[in-house]
Amino acid sequence: MKIETFDSVWDALEATPEAAQNMTLRCDLMIALEEYIKENALSQAQAAKIFGVTQPRVSDLVRGKIDLFSLDSLINMAVAAGMKVELRISRRTPRDGHDNKKTAAR
């Protein structure tokens, strides 16, 4: 049995490094938005009003339906809540590449 290791779950699940990075960023934003809701003890209706979306949209967020959200929509929600979104870009080292260690039993 060959064991592969991945740097992130998205590297294991997505077909390309671009898709994996996109999913990682969307996941990070969704987590930050959910933490904002919890820290402020908001109902979904209250969060929806703050984020500028509908309550069912917030329900999708807290239920982790990542496929229903684009980076743009998540950034818009975060900014509407008064959050600052920053992007840090760095060059990949050979160890950071998509074809580096992978972990999964095959």
Task: Describe the protein's architecture and organization.
With 106 residues, the protein is mainly alpha-helical. 51% of the residues lie in helices and 6% in strands. Helix 2 packs parallel to helix 5 and helix 3 (44-51) packs across helix 4 (55-62).
Strand arrangement in the largest pleated sheet: 1-2
How far do the termini sit from each other? 6 Å
Report the biggest beta sheet as strand number plus sense, adding barrel if it closes. 2 strands, antiparallel
* CATH architecture annotation name: Orthogonal Bundle
Helix % is 40-55%
Q: Helical region count?
A: 5
Features:
single chain, about 110 residues, mainly alpha, 434 Repressor (Amino-terminal Domain), two-stranded antiparallel ribbon, 5 helices, about 50% helix, elongated, disordered C terminus, DNA binding, HigA2-like_HTH, DNA-binding, Cro/C1-type_HTH
Topology:
Layout: E1 3-5, H1 9-13, H2 17-39, H3 44-51, H4 55-62, H5 71-80, E2 103-105
Antiparallel strand pairs: 1-2
Helix pairs in contact: 2-5, 3-4
Please give a quick description of this structure.
With 106 residues, the chain is mainly alpha-helical. The protein has one domain (3-105): 434 Repressor (Amino-terminal Domain) (Orthogonal Bundle), CATH 1.10.260.40. Helices cover 51% and strands 6% of the residues.
